[in-house]
Amino acid sequence: MFHLVFAALLAVAIEDPRPQATIPKLAVLDVGTASAVPPEFLDLVQASLLQSSAVTLVERLELSKILRERALVLSLSSTSDSVAAAGALVAADAFLLLEASAPKDEGIPVRVRLVDAHDGVKLADSIVSLAGSRKDWEESATF
After folding, report:
1. d(Cα 60, Cα 9) in Å, to the nearest integer?
2. Whole-angstrom distance, CA of residue 119 vs CA of residue 92
């Protein structure tokens, strides 16, 4: 599942008008309003991305210093212009947006969207179901 997201993220780097030597900067956010993405899954996603040389992550502490995550979530949910403005504020090239839904019998559904922070275009959109334990989630979180 994340291989599609990763391919789309590489497309951000290719489409980016900056020099090719620049590695795309990705901000990973939990944008759920009803249910939070399990912190263990968020940690696994970030750990997987940290091992990749294809992207640089915006530090969560850096994100919170710039603006509160809830304000960013609200701005990301409206228009492509607000996504681009939020991307400029946090110096991100793309947002990886994770949104959990209420748990179901087959696990916790998590919507994963990759959005270009320059123009607000959605590059990928998928749902992964988190069933079992943290160990079972590792494959879903691997890029």
Report:
1. 19
2. 12
What's the one-letter identity of residue 20?
Q
Provide the residue-wise pLDDT of the chain in tens; the chain has 143 residues. 455 555 555 555 545 555 555 788 888 888 777 788 888 888 888 888 888 888 888 887 776 665 555 565 555 555 666 666 677 777 788 888 888 988 888 889 999 888 888 888 888 888 888 888 777 777 777 66
Is 128:48 a contact under the CB 8 Å cutoff? no
Which residues are within 8 A (CB) of 109 and not within 5 positions of it... i.e. 6 or more apart? 100, 101, 127, 128, 129, 130
Question: Going by C-beta distance under 8 Å and a sequence separation of 6 or more, which residues neighbour residue 87?
Answer: 27, 93, 94, 95, 117, 118
CB-CB neighbours of 84 under 10 Å: 18
* Separation CA 41–CA 111 (nearest Å): 12
Q: Are 100 and 120 in contact (CB under 8 A)?
A: no
